[in-house]
Amino acid sequence: MIEKLSYSLAVKIHDANPDKKESVDVLSYSLSITLNYLLVLSFSLLIGYLTNEFVDTIISMVSFIALRIFSKGYHAKSLTTCFILTTAIISLIPHVPMQDYTSVTNILNVFMVLFFAPNGSFEGEVIPQKRVYLLKGISLIIVLSNFIISSHIVALSFFAQSLLLLPKRR
After folding, report:
1. Nearest Cα to 139, choosing from 61, 74, 86, 68?
2. Cα-flanking dihedrals φ and ψ of residue 72, to 5°?
3. Angstrom distance (rounded) from CA 113 to CA 135
4. What angle do CA 55, 57, 60 make, to 5 degrees?
5. Over the stretch 91-147, which tens digit does the pLDDT of each residue have?
6. Rounded to an integer, what is the distance from CA 33 to the centroid of its chain?
7. What burial letters (b/e) apply to 4-43, b meaning 16+ CB within 10 Å?
8. End-to-end distance of the chain based on CA atoms, in angstroms?
9. How far is CA 16 from CA 9, 12, 26, in A?
10. Burial 120-157 (b: 16+ CB within 10 A, else e)
């Protein structure tokens, strides 16, 4: 869905541009990534608003994305699947009553990030060892920050992202 929409928009942009500097494929790719981000943002916030969990949805989204940037992890095979999964994860987290398990979840998050972050293998990315330490360190600092914040929303967001770090089965 997202890929098809991006491609049709890219063709229209390419045809309307007399200079034609970028190829349709390059335009389509960049549009698809942008559309995916905008759709996840829009639908997550809409669901949060409609379920009276708007602020917690924002907290869920920001914490999930902050850890995701540095820890990497699993990528869905299509952007449509990515949109559905990411929106579901971000939108469900504020509705899960886990206040009593924040500390336990934080500890699990630390261990998963310590052992599995960053995991670029899902993208076929080879991360230089020097950068691995940097990304792991930043990821750990992000996860450890919730021992101070002590938010069950943040803990669950980090937990969801940490699960996406687990190595793929062969």
Report:
1. 68
2. 65, -145
3. 10
4. 115
5. 999 999 988 999 999 999 999 999 998 887 656 667 788 888 999 999 999 999 999
6. 12
7. ebbbeebeeebeeeeeeeeeeeebbbebbeebbeebbbeb
8. 29
9. 11, 6, 16
10. bbeeeeebeeeeeeebbebbbebbeebeeeebbbbbbb
